[in-house]
Design goal:
The protein is of the alpha+beta class. It is built from eight helices and five strands. The protein has a five-stranded mixed beta sheet with strand order 2-1-5-3-4, with helices on both faces.
Length: 164
């Protein structure tokens, strides 16, 4: 049995210690907000917080997460009231929405570590999160808004789309 602390609730799981955390969250705990994208940690759709850090849950094992706090999109802001979630809504970021839980979790981790990031710091932190719909300019705009940093100009926002 492995103990996981997910969104503030302790769970004892009878799981293979090498099972990816993603599948424990989705299949064993029923938390479907964290998405499967690539399975190799390259796309960011499965991003969760492990001990306060953004990690790819598809390549993090249950054993690696045991005993450490895990926060999923469901636990970030239970009522969608986390500043990043509010900014995402205000900027109308999602298009299809599939990658957005991972995008939001990555942005929230960045803002916890760097409360007033520059646009370039956001771009650098978010580069590993892929969006098929190309909502990158809105991701940057929302992350800046969540940080309370004004967008300098449209060129700064558009430059993110060119880098992605």
């Amino acid at each position: 049995m492995l103990d996981l602390l997910v969104n503030g609730t302790r769970h004892s799981l009878d799981a293979d210690p090498d099972m990816p955390l993603l599948w424990a969250l989705r299949d064993l705990l029923g938390l479907r907000g964290t998405k499967f994208g690539c399975g190799i940690g390259a796309c960011g759709a499965c991003t969760v917080h492990l001990d306060g850090q953004a990690v790819r849950s598809c390549i993090t094992t249950v054993q690696d997460a045991a005993g450490k706090p895990v926060v999923t999109i469901e636990g970030l802001g239970v009522h969608g009231d986390h500043p990043v979630q509010r900014a995402w809504k205000a900027a109308n970021v999602p298009q299809c929405g599939y990658c957005q839980p991972g995008q939001i979790m990555q942005a929230a981790a960045l803002l916890k570590e760097t409360p007033k990031p520059t646009g370039q710091q956001i771009v650098d932190a978010m580069m590993g999160n892929i969006c098929r719909c190309g909502t990158y300019p809105r991701v940057l705009q929302a992350a800046l808004k969540a940080a309370g940093v004004p967008v300098a100009n449209k060129t700064e926002v558009i430059s993110y789309a060119k880098l992605a």
